[in-house]
Design brief:
Length: 652
């Protein structure tokens, strides 16, 4: 249960103390009482503290024990139940929960220095995974000063697993119960870091579970899911139709996978244990939509119809690359498929899914595979430098009369292919006339004409190739050679933030999500015929153990070329703060890149004059720290339009 509608962007503006008492009864009924006191210390924090919101699942009952404002002088101002609002269900574009309730509690007469006090009791008799319970509490970084106190009372005979970090732990026995107690606090965060990896293992956190291990979660899921993946006559007919004229196992599997990704939309409507039990294949095929469990179930059934064995795979969509020692449901909220004969993981929920690789958000993740043969704890493949490549080739012509035109071809693989498909999908949805001028404006230019040529964004073949064409308006002054052309006219530019996350922040505190890959930008310029001399800068080379950068200028007659290459050598999906800092420091040391000194004759002939601004404007001179507008990173760069998956859910 999470309280609070939001937090203001000001350190030390809020103080919050939370006390949670959890009682597990002999029949595994769980009674949880949460007492929370929130004190605004600044006027900007009053609005956030003045109301609490929390979610009640369909298998829970809730009682508001107390809700009042404690004034600074000790007076109590009770919250009025007539002000309480309960919203039934949660409806989203692709994911809806029918049986949850959102409760909002507003507090009366709350000012700076007062305290909003709320005590809520929930009772959970029937667990979504029958007979098993888990709970995660993560004290994530925020601008709030937080303290937390958790007490768990459970029968001594019940096998309760737990782990914690940055919290004190005490244990005692009272009659036939074991009393476990955790406490700790966290100061307001001083940085606003993005792309944090393994956050739940880096901050004060607690996990409680009656699952002995992750395999038990997978087995409990599969016990009810396997019966939904039977090969029915309808499934057999469809599998035969999809794979006709395909005898090879790999090509049969590819055809089935591509059929599922193209014909089954992602739509999830959850009610009760529908969070954990997929629909049967007849329902999925009649609807032509489903969630990740449904997609995995249908894919497994179609494969089985052709004699291709597969395994269900439980995975998390969060940026977590390690499993805690205590198994909790919240570690797994997505289901994909593994084909042992091909040693291939497949995510059938991706609209333009690629049979030959996983989306980057699924890569390098700990997973639990389960089938009739048992359970296997494994890890999805980690991409290499060759797996994620973008090559931007831009060719531009500039005339003495001020006409400037060009063509940019982007060839992409892996995460960058997914990024370019996303761009093409957005262009299809919003229109070229709107999106392409917006890209030009983002690159610092306006006016001109722009066009885009590409395969359909649903085409999963790689490399995925996109071509931009553009023409800039003619200068109103014949003698004015200064203008700013789009640097490659690309939504992606070769910067290390593509691989390591934003590098313009302060020194990192937490690990960052990262991945290996290569970005190359080559720009060819046909120079005006009045350019008579150019002084080229020296080659720029920088590197760390995780990263390399190289930029080189060359000239062949009136043809000028600039080639920039950024390579991430990250061997894992997680980079330590010091590794990211080394990349940031090294890249920022480049500063403003050096541009050629251009000597051009004046209009109409005559003396030559140094015109350093021509090439500086021609190539859109920008500091080395200029970032791409939409780097494909961590959970942000998964694939085009994909909703949060939720095969198994736990209260966080």
């Amino acid at each position: 249960m999470q309280f609070g509608a939001g937090v203001p962007a000001r350190a030390e503006s809020l103080r919050q103390a939370t006390r949670i008492d959890i009682q597990i009864q002999p029949d595994l009924t769980v009674v949880e009482t949460t007492h929370e006191e929130t004190t605004p210390l600044a006027q900007s924090a009053v609005a956030a503290a003045a109301q609490a919101k929390f979610i009640v699942n369909g298998n829970q009952t809730v009682e508001i024990v107390e809700a009042f404002t404690r004034k600074a002088d000790g007076r109590k101002v009770p919250a009025d139940p007539r002000d309480f609002v309960m919203q039934a269900g949660a409806v989203g574009a692709a994911t809806s929960y029918v049986d949850i309730k959102l409760q909002q509690i507003p507090f009366r007469d709350l000012s700076v220095g007062d305290t909003a006090v709320l005590t809520v009791r929930t009772v959970e008799k029937e667990h979504y995974i029958p007979g098993l319970y888990s709970r995660s509490i993560v004290n994530a970084p925020s601008v709030i000063r937080k303290s937390i106190d958790v007490t768990l009372r459970a029968p001594a005979a019940l096998d309760v697993h737990h782990d914690e970090q940055l919290l004190t732990y005490e244990e005692s026995r009272q009659s036939d119960q074991i009393v476990r107690h955790w406490s700790g606090s966290s100061a307001p965060a001083t940085v606003n870091e993005k792309d944090i990896a393994d956050l739940a293992l880096s901050v004060p956190a607690l996990r409680i579970s009656t699952f002995p291990d992750s395999g038990a979660i997978a087995s409990a899921y599969y016990a009810r899911a396997r019966q939904q993946a039977v090969v029915t006559p309808e499934v057999q007919r469809l599998a035969d139709e999809i794979t006709k004229d395909k005898a090879d196992t790999r090509e049969q599997a590819r055809a089935i996978y591509e059929w599922v990704t193209r014909n089954i939309r992602y739509v999830a409507v959850y009610f009760g244990d529908g969070r954990f039990v997929p629909n049967d294949t007849a329902t999925i095929l009649s609807r032509r939509f489903g969630d990740c469990k449904d997609d995995a179930t249908l894919l497994s059934a179609l494969l089985a119809a052709k004699g291709i064995a597969s395994e269900q795979v439980l995975i998390g969509t969060q940026a977590n690359y390690r499993l805690a020692s205590t198994a909790v449901l919240g570690a797994f909220n997505h289901v994909i498929v593994y084909i042992p004969a091909l040693d291939r993981y497949l995510d059938p929920t991706v609209p333009f899914g690629n049979f030959d690789r996983l989306p980057v958000a699924d890569s390098g993740k700990p997973v639990v595979r389960v089938s009739d043969k048992g359970v296997t704890v494994a890890r999805t493949p980690i991409p290499s430098v060759a797996d994620n490549v973008i090559e931007i080739d831009s060719r531009m012509t500039s005339t003495r009369e001020g006409q400037h035109s060009g063509q940019t071809t982007i060839t992409s693989r892996g995460v960058f292919a997914d990024l370019m498909r996303t761009f093409v999908a957005q262009t299809e949805a919003r229109g070229k006339d709107l999106l392409l001028p917006a890209l030009a404006q983002d690159r610092g230019i306006s006016g001109g004409t722009y066009d885009l040529d590409s395969p359909p964004w649903t085409d999963s073949r790689e490399p995925f190739r996109v071509t931009f064409k553009w023409t800039l308006p003619k200068s109103t002054k014949v003698t004015d050679s200064r203008f700013k052309a789009p640097p490659g006219f690309s939504p992606v530019m070769p910067n290390p933030d593509l691989f390591f996350g934003p590098l313009d922040e302060a020194k990192r505190t937490y690990p960052a999500g990262c991945f290996a890959g290569r970005a190359v930008y080559t720009m060819h310029v046909a120079l005006p015929d009045n350019v008579v001399s150019i002084k080229l800068p020296a080659v720029i080379k920088r590197s760390t153990p995780q990263f390399s950068f190289r930029e080189e200028w060359t000239r062949d007659g009136q043809q000028l070329r600039r080639r920039t290459e950024v390579v991430s050598l990250a061997a894992t999906r997680v980079c330590a703060p010091e590794e990211v800092e080394a990349v940031r420091t090294t890249f920022r040391s480049i500063g403003n890149r050096t541009y050629p000194m251009v000597y051009a004759s004046r209009a109409g002939g005559g003396d030559t004059a140094a015109r350093p601004s021509l090439l500086q404007q021609l190539f859109g001179a920008q500091p080395a720290t200029n970032r791409s507008p939409a780097p494909p990173h961590a959970a942000a760069a998964h694939t085009a339009p994909r909703a949060t998956r939720s095969p198994v859910e736990a209260r966080q």
